[in-house]
Each structure stands twice: as C-alpha cells, then as structure tokens.
Amino acid sequence: MFSFFNRLFPFARHITSSRSVSTYCEMADPSSFSNHLNVVIRSTKLDWKVDMEGKKLGGSVEHEVEGLTDAKEVILDARDLNVERVLWEGLETPFKYDKISASLGDRLSISIPLVSKGDRGVLSIVYSTSSSARALQFLSPAQTTDNKGPFLFSQCQAIHARSIVPCQDTPAVKAKYSSKVTVPAGLTCLMSAISTGKDTSGQGEWTFSFHQDIPVPSYLIAIVVGVLERREIGPRSAVWAEGSVVDTAAKEFMETEEFLKAAEEICGEYVWKRYDLVVLPKTFPYGGMENPCLTFVTPTIIAGDGSLVSVVAHEIAHSWTGNLVTTANWDHFWLNEGFTVYLERKINEKVYGRPRRYFDAKEGFESLGETLKFVLPEHSKLRQHLGGIDPDDAFSSIPYEKGSSLLLYLEQEVLSEGESGSFLRDHVRLFSSKGLDTETWLTSMKERFPRMKEHEEIVNEWLYGEGMPPRTPKFIDDSMVVECNKVIDNVLSSSPSSQLFSSLTTTQKIFVLSSLCAKAPFDHAKMEVLASAPFGISSSINCEILSPWIKLGLTSQWEPSIPVALQFAKEYGRLKYCKKTYG
C-alpha cells in the first residue's frame, strides 16, 4: 500500500559489499539525507503527546545508534519539524537544521564525539511536528462515521516518517521500536507494534505503550487514535473500528485466520505475534496498508458478503514479502509488491481454489495495457531509476502486475514442481530482515536455478525493458473468464439476462461491469434494464460494483447516475475510486 503522496524515491548505484548484517543494507539511497552508511539506528524509543486540536505530535525520540565507520556526525532525515534540543549520551550537543528540498524535506545534522565501528550511543531529540505533517491525517468528529470524537491516522510510506520523527528514513535501515503515547482521555491509541500497557489514571489523559521487537523500516511506523471498539476474530486477530462499524467488520473478516494459515503453509511461520486490523474512516485513500501487527483497511472493502477481503490476503502476504523481505529502496519497489501479489494469489488459490488464482492473474496481466496508456515509458520498467522526479508521477500498478507476472512466468518455465513449492519459503529464509535490490535477487536466482540461463534475455527484458512483458504467462484455468465473457456478450445483446448475470460470483460481476465501461456509452433503454431490481446492480452496497456502474452511467450520459455519483464522491476518498470513476 502506499502513502498519501506516494513519494517514492530513487536509489543511485548499487554498492556491492561482502558485509552481512541482518537488519541493514549497505546501499546508497538518494531519497535519504542520512549518513546511514557511517552510523546506523539499531533501536528507537518514542515518547509522544498527541495534540488533536493543534494537529501535532510533540515529545521526544531516543535512537540507539551504532558506528559502521569512524564518524563525528549523525545526519537524519526530517521534514517541517521543530527541533528544540539534542542530547548525546545525556549531554546537549550542537545540531543544525537545514531546509533542503521540496521533494525530500530537511536535513538534521548532529555533532557527536568520535565513534568507531561497533561503538554505540544514545541520541535524544526533543521536538514537535508541524500541523501539516505529511504522514498525519487529523479528522474532526464530523469527518468520522459515528461523529463521537476526533480521529488520527498516519501513513509513512514511502518517505513520510521523517515528518513525524527525525530518523534514517530509508528501507535500508531496520530498527526495533518502542513507544509511549499520551492522548486525550476517551480515545484509543493503536500502533504497528504489540501493546504493552494502558494507563488511564492521568487527569484528562490516557497513555498507551507499545513494543515492536522485530526490526522494521521507518515507513512501517504507524499510529491510529480515535473512538474505537475491538472484536476478536481469531486466536491471534482482532478488528478495531468505530462502534457502528465494528460488528459488521468482524463478520466480514472472519476468514482472516484461514488466510494466515494458508500463508504460513507457503512461506513459513507468521512471526509478528498479532495480526489485527483497524477499519479507518472513509477518507482513507488506499485499500490497505501493511503496518506490522495492525493492518489499516478502508471500509470500502466491507461489502457484506466477504467478496473484497482479498485486500486482507494481500496485506497478510506483506507480513513476509515487504515487512520481512524489504526493498532496499524505492527503485526496487516491485520486490515488495510483485512478490506480494504473487503470494496473495497463491493464498487465494488455497482458500478459494485454482480458478480464482488464474482469474485474478489474467485480469491483472491484461490490465497492464490500460495502465501503460497513462505512464511514461521509463516508468513502465520494473527496475526503476527515478532520479529527482516527483514519485507521484511514477506510481502505477506496474510493480504489482508486471512483477507478479514475472514470478508466475518463472514458476512455469524455470522452477520444477518441487522448487515452485518451496520458492517463496526459500525467498523469505534467504532475504528476511534485509534490504533487497533487484541485482542481488537476480544473482541469487541464477545461482540457485540453472535454467535461469535459458531465460536470461527474457528476464532482463522483463526487469529492465519498457512496456508490456516480453512473454505472457500461462493462465491454465480460464473457466471464470469464459463465464464472464459469455455474460458480457449477453448484456450487449438485445435481451440481457439478469439470471445469467446473477449466476456470477461478485468478483466476476466486477470484471463484467469494468469490461462494459470500455464499451460504453450505452443507450438509455439498456441502462434502465441493467438498473432494474433483478440485476441488483443499482442497489448494491459494494463499492467495487458501484464504481464501474457510476462510470458506465456517466459515460452513457444517463441522468439517474448523477445523484449516485455525487453521493459516492462525498462519502469515499479512496484514490482508486476517484481516479477510476471520475477520471
């Protein structure tokens, strides 16, 4: 999942090294000003007070840092922070705060006594955020579902952690973190970590404590504050949401444990202890965000029939591919998302059967053609070189679908059946807790699988070439697609059959409606037929149904779609719908 601004940033050249550190990657990252090749953060302690009215976080951070070379300075990433003072081992030390770049933010340079390789020390920083921190979204009570209190949620991916904490804001650095967060009494605080306590004795304030003992990159630090209720949905899972939503959400996500078990069969043990979900208000702009121990999800996936919970399968998959095996920097983002989509579809195969896996894979692959119409050619490569551009201009489904289709091709053409069964488990074992880049992964693949040599030219074109992949994977079960095409032909005929349409799964109905949008406009008589009760389209509460239905109506200039479109736009801020429905 992605940040509010999707500000992915490039990395320069690949730096080879024989050093092996489980939570650190020796790779330059020009999206970060930090000198993480000289000193590296090993653990972080946060002490925050949340000012809901002022829309700020205030407090302090302690970083335990370790020298990798001789160094007399620690340089951290920041953005619009008010730094009051800095201490090294308890003593105040000079610092300099520089505004550098609209794209990358600010640089905090801190003088320290000389540290050598292996030396450790504690850096303490007292600071506060701005009221417009890019990682934070504050909502008034009126902007929530139940109107019972203010709300806060964060989104640090890709480079927005620096707007809430001075840090080495690069996925090359992973650190454990703990936190103490004070909020107005009556509000609940959650973080991407395990809860270690709650103190409600304060006058008008409650304090929550957390600990994340698995090292994570800064973009996976996450916080939620609001009037929330909890429901257990499994032996290691709960769902959090506003009161009017929580029971419906709990029912919707009852398959969570089944997804977790399926993923464990493929990748190995789930090591994060808890897998909880929090349903955010409708303004949350993404489907989900894979914050460890606490996945953020949009309420738009609550359809009443469980048909959209594949988003949860995707975020669960990130628990291995992304959160354990992490991109070295954002030029290699496909290593997060391509692997995650590939794993997500293998999970769905275990839960829903083989036809579903290949239906999703075929639909995703064929969607690349449409995506390519809207991205610059250089941004259609898997292995990116983004340079100094605004990363928003490069974000698309390319790393997701082009990346996952490469892995499906390798499964079919390079791996044996036995190798295919252990491929993802071995991937996690080899690269867990490290920052991974494309070239390191490719070298490993060539060393482990001799047949890679036969496909080297194709794989290189897939990774480094523009446009569509050079080959099409085999979609060995297209039964669901065949059924959809039959219904599409029927709808386009003079006598559309509601019975035929109703026989489809919800996933298939979404595919049919999206396909029909490409064939619009329709005459108004046809729209009236499709809007009739037997089809059940216009009465659906499923946002994935409503979005293409609204677009179909608007494209056909069918007047009854206008009030539906306006209401939909008022209620939902998910970028996917804003772009697809109104773009």
UniProtKB/TrEMBL annotation:
Record-level GO cellular component terms: cytosol
SMART domains recorded: Leuk-A4-hydro_C
Protein residues bound to Zn(2+): 314, 318, 337
Gene Ontology MF annotations: aminopeptidase activity; epoxide hydrolase activity; metallopeptidase activity; zinc ion binding
Active-site residues, record numbering mapped to chain: 315 (proton acceptor), 400 (proton donor)
Cofactor annotation: Zn(2+)
Cofactor note as given: Binds 1 zinc ion per subunit.
Binding annotation for a peptide: 155-157, 285-290, 574-576
Stretches assigned to the Peptidase M1 leukotriene A4 hydrolase/aminopeptidase C-terminal domain: 479-581
Primary location group: cytoplasm
InterPro entries reported for this sequence: Aminopeptidase_N-like_N (IPR045357), Aminopeptidase_N-like_N_sf (IPR042097), ARM-type_fold (IPR016024), LTA4H_cat (IPR049980), M1_LTA-4_hydro/amino_C_sf (IPR038502), M1_LTA4H (IPR034015), Peptidase_M1 (IPR001930), Peptidase_M1_C (IPR015211)
One Pfam family in the UniProt entry: Leuk-A4-hydro_C
Keywords: Cytoplasm, Hydrolase, Metal-binding, Metalloprotease, Protease, Zinc
An individual GO BP term: proteolysis
Cell compartment(s), UniProt: Cytoplasm
Superkingdom of origin: Eukaryota
Family: Belongs to the peptidase M1 family.
Matching PANTHER family: LEUKOTRIENE A-4 HYDROLASE
Identification of the protein by name: Peptidase M1 leukotriene A4 hydrolase/aminopeptidase C-terminal domain-containing protein
Native organism: Pristionchus fissidentatus
Source species taxonomy: Eukaryota, Metazoa, Ecdysozoa, Nematoda, Chromadorea
